[in-house]
Structures are given as C-alpha cells and as structure tokens.
Design goal:
The chain contains 17 helices and eleven strands. The chain is mainly alpha-helical and 441 residues long. Among the domains are: 38-71 and 392-408, SET domain (Beta-clip-like); 79-206, no CATH class; 417-441, no CATH class. The structure holds S-adenosylmethionine.
C-alpha cells in the first residue's frame, strides 16, 4: 500500500509554490547578486536553451586561471571517509596532527571499521533491500587518495602486529614522527554543543557551522533539537541506510535556522505574509528556502537510476521501496528537529525533491591530504599541489573565450562513450555535450 504523508495534503499549495522552478529573471537576479558578493569576476549565469541554467565566461580566461572559489551550499563527509580522516566539520580541511590522523586510522583499522580498498561494499548496507540504491557517490566529499573507498572489515587483510601502546601514543601526542613539524595542522576543536562528533579547525568554523545547521543537528547537551534521542535515531538510520539523508537534514536545518534568523532580525520579514493560492504563509519561509529553490530538482524515487541488479519488472517495487525508505527517515527527522513555522519542509514531497537535488547536482569534493603529502615527502617525492580547504574551486583547463560556456565534466572523460553514459544515468539525463554527440553518431 502506498504511504501517505499527511503534510503533503495539508500544505499541497505551499509545497507546489516552494517547488516551482524560479522564473528566468528571478534566477538571473539571484545569481548576479551571489556572484557580485564573491571575489570572482568574469562569470555570469544564463539560461542555455535546452540545458537549463549554465555558467558563461564574461571575459577571456587563460589556461590555469581561477574561475571560481566558493563555499559549498551543503556538504558532508561520507561515512566511509570519516573512518579514514579527521576533518573540520565545516570547511573539511584536515585537523589535529599527522600523528593523530595516522594513530586514529590505525586504531579504527584495529577495530575493523576502517577502509579496505579492495572491496566496495558498505558494511552497514542491508543485504536484501534497495537502501543505498546502488549509489556510491550521493554525498559530497572525499579526501585525498581515499576517494571512492568504502567501509568494510579488514579481517582478511595481511595484518601487521603493532607494538602495544603505539597507537595510543600517536593519538595522545606522546609519540612524534620524524619531520611532522613541516606538516602542522590546525588544532581539532571539539563542538561546543558536546556531541563529541563534530570537530573544527577554528572557533570561526565551529561558530559558523553552529549557526548554519549544527545547533539543530548536534546530539550534545547544548543541542537545540526537539529531541536528542530522536536525532540519534535519525543519524543511526542514515548511517545504516544512506548517508544522503544527513545531507538532506543539513539542507532542512539550515532553512529552518535562516527562517528564524530572518524573522528575528528583519522587521520587514516578521510581519510579511505571502499569498499562496489563497493561503497566507510567512514570506520568510520562501526567502529562507531561496538558495535551495534555485537548484534543479526531481523526486529522488523518480530520478534514481535503476541499479544493475534490479530487474526492470521490479522497477515499480524498487521505486516504492526508495520512497518508503525516505518516509521512514523523514519521520525520524521530524521527531528530531520539527519546527511549526516550517512544517511544509517536513513533507515527503519536499524531502524527496531535496534528496533528488543532491542526486542530480552532487559533486565529489577532493581535499588535500597532508598525511599523503607527508608520506610523499618522506619518500622524497614532490607533493602534488592542491587546495588545502574544502571550498569548491574551478580552474580553467584551457583558454575560455568571452561568451563561451564554462563546463565541468560529471564523469571521467577518458572513459568510453558507453561507460560515460552508464555513469551519467545517475544524473538522470542524456548527455548532449559535443564529445558525446560526436561519439554517439
Ligand atoms: C547539475 S544540473 C546543471 C544546472 C542545470 N542546467 C540547471 O538549470 O539548474 C544538471 C542538469 O543540467 C542539464 N545538463 C547539464 N549538462 C548537460 C549535457 N551535457 N547534456 C544535456 N543536459 C545537460 C540536465 O538537465 C541535467 O540534469
């Protein structure tokens, strides 16, 4: 029987208005303002016929020139990657020390929860359901050389017995490795909310994350969630099924907090109401939702690519199971961070579209691994030049002329046409770039 989410029916008109794609002029104004607030000059967002919105060069770019460097809208570290490295929960740079990073990884390896590069099955995945939808990359970041790795037990790997106490002394700083003073990292500052989960590179990052979304998603004693227990259940469910739910929770929490901030600080927004198909709704909710309203979206269970191991005759059952999984997650999130003024955000329709938005727009973010740099240095190899933080950076790979579209490849361009199309199926569109059109014909 199909699940019915009562909020969908109760707020159908508001949900419809929230999910309406912005008018071209409205989107143009939003992105013009966004770009004007960044240091970047020389790009603009324009509608590009059949392809929707695109970024275009407004000046000549030389090869190697920086086009854009910007903070992500919403980002999270993959669960498997969390086992591998300790990074700032806001800007994603490595924190602590080389010794802590190595000691922590060895410790988790001993517990049997670290990364095994030979396999790619999440330990936490349930065998007989479609929970993960066959996806590996629906969250937003990977670090250094561990890209694409998955958590698994390492019991059958060749184990090297480590001297007793070695791991502890690496973690607690008693043991110094040679030359690590050349690779100093920012300290690991624990979340002031007391969750013991989030760590930051600075007080500024801790504060920014708290204000952006973590105050609602922290499980510590200072949490501003409705119930830390419910939040714990939501997080556990996401970890056991699909960590894209953690990303969706960040998107909802940040909208709730923006709504509260707008109402608290902006007199105009406090009393302002919007008429949505005959119903009056606070206009602050629409303003708070704006950054998410700009992104291309479809319902998750409609746009997710059918995994290879699901027969087409089972497609309907597969999509119903994905929808039901999203509903279970949403119920847990609702119990954890419900906000009366933002109730439409707790509809399955909005939740499904937020997750679908990540499915269709997500990019993996690779940040420099100082641990990798350290080993390269020790091996007397030159270290690769990479950015140190988790900002999204776009650099011109070839000269780009004024008026030309600035594009990025969603997949490895070296792959064959068929392999590229198979990977692009996850993004829910048939690629019509010049290379694909040429090779197709
Ligand atoms: C990440 S979004 C890009 C932004 C999008 N154009 C918009 O208006 O928001 C991806 C979507 O853009 C369109 N798109 C991007 N590149 C394309 C390509 N090479 N061929 C066909 N469609 C493309 C598809 O509709 C795809 O689902």
């Amino acid at each position: 029987m199909e699940i019915v989410c009562p909020v969908d029916a109760q707020f159908a008109d508001v949900i419809y208005a929230l999910l309406c794609p912005p008018a071209p002029l409205q989107a143009q104004g939003y992105f013009d303002q966004l770009i004007s607030k960044r240091q970047t000059r020389g790009i603009k967002v324009e509608q590009n016929g059949d392809f929707g919105k695109g970024v275009f060069a407004d000046k000549e770019f030389k090869e190697g020139e920086l086009i854009l460097k910007d903070q992500m809208l919403v980002g999270a570290q993959h669960i498997a990657n969390k086992m591998d490295c300790l990074v700032c929960s806001f800007c994603f740079r490595f924190i602590g020390s080389i010794e802590l990073q190595i000691g922590r990884k060895l410790y988790l390896q001993q517990l049997g929860v670290s990364v095994n590069h030979d396999e790619c099955d999440m330990e936490v995945e349930e065998e007989d359901n479609f929970a993960d939808g066959g996806e590996e990359d629906d969250s937003s970041m990977e670090n250094g050389e561990d890209s694409g790795a998955c958590a698994s037990t390492s019991s059958h790997r060749n184990k090297v017995e480590l001297p007793r106490g070695l791991v502890e002394s690496l973690i607690n700083g008693e043991l110094k490795l040679p030359l690590t003073e050349n690779f100093s990292l920012p300290p690991a500052i624990p979340c002031a909310g007391g969750c013991g989960e989030a760590y930051y590179c600075s007080k500024l990052c801790a504060q920014s994350d708290w204000e952006t979304c973590h105050s609602l998603l922290c499980t510590g004693e200072k949490s501003e969630s409705v119930s830390s227990e419910a939040l714990g259940e939501f997080i556990q469910h996401a970890n056991e099924t699909n960590d894209v739910f953690l990303l969706a929770a960040k998107a909802i929490a940040s909208t709730i907090l923006r709504n509260r901030k707008l109402k608290a600080t902006c007199l105009e927004e406090r009393g302002k109401l919007k008429n949505v198909l005959g119903r009056t709704v606070s206009s602050a909710l629409f303003e708070a939702w704006k950054p998410l309203s700009m992104a291309h979206k479809r319902r998750w269970w409609d746009c997710i690519a059918l995994p290879f191991d699901v027969e087409s005759s089972d497609e309907e059952a597969f999509r119903a199971q994905i929808r039901s999984l999203a509903f279970s997650s949403l119920q847990l999130l609702r119990a954890a961070i419900f906000d009366n003024e933002c109730e439409p955000l707790f509809s399955l329709e909005i939740y499904g579209h937020i997750i679908g938005m990540f499915e269709l727009n997500n990019l993996d973010l690779v940040v420099a691994s100082p641990v990798e740099d350290y080993f390269l240095y020790i091996d007397d190899l030159p270290s690769p030049e990479k950015d140190k933080d988790g900002q999204a950076t776009i650099i011109a790979l070839k000269p780009i002329h004024k008026g030309e579209e600035v594009t990025i490849s969603y997949v490895d361009e070296e792959l064959s046409f068929e392999e590229r199309q198979a990977l692009l199926a996850d993004y829910g569109f048939r690629c019509r770039c010049l290379k694909c059109l040429k090779e197709e014909s």
